[in-house]
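Entry 14. Structure prediction run on the chain below.
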Amino acid sequence: MFRSRVLAVILAGTAMATMAAPVAAAPTAVTLTDGIAAGVVRGSEGFSQAGIVVPADTYVTYVVQTEPALVGRVLEIWTRSATSTWQRLTSRSVAADGSVHYFARVAAWTAFQARFAGDDANAAAAAHGRVANASARGDATLVIGCDEFQARTGSAGTAALQRSLAVRAGAVVRVRLCSNASTGYRWDAPVLDGRYLSLLAHRTIAPAGGMLGAAGSEAWTMRALGAGASTATFTYSRPWAGGEKATWTLRLAITVIR
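Output returned:
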């Protein structure tokens, strides 16, 4: 009987201690959304989620957008080359609008990634990572997928994107945009300023795997002429009479440098 009472007291004390112990809240998951653009871009427009090609020894901007919970916290910026592993390069504090901008001059293929080490309130996180390649000839390339247009499509069913590129005079500009012929849409001929750009070629690229109804892409090759600033405008429409016009629009600012 005595043993039973002692055991009961011990078990009761253990249960009370367990109930009294505070349970730590699990850290909140956070998201780091990133993009990349040619040149020095201080705002929030003009960033691509696909890789870009810029003239060698020119600047690119890597941007990260995160949540209000991380304002004032530090993000690590990591980079790697085609022949090296990831290395921590620097750190940046998250601005009041939840963004971090990092400017870098690139001379060869370079990948960028933002990482958050985590703290008591927020879990560690890493961005997808974006790539800039450098062309010794001064060429420039831009690729935009369907998801980038779809993410900006408003209630009216239209989306307008702005992007920018720099290219050296005499070099080539390549633009590749999502396109789905099965929907009846196609990209109109781009509107170019003939003083700075000439259209060399246009081609349609079938969807990967040849899946019926899947999106492919359309690609244009242009030659940069004299130095200066120009804009190429692309519109995605159903070309027949009464068909939807300019459902998607891309305005591409192109700076031709010597």
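The mean pLDDT is 89.
Filed with the rest of this week's runs.
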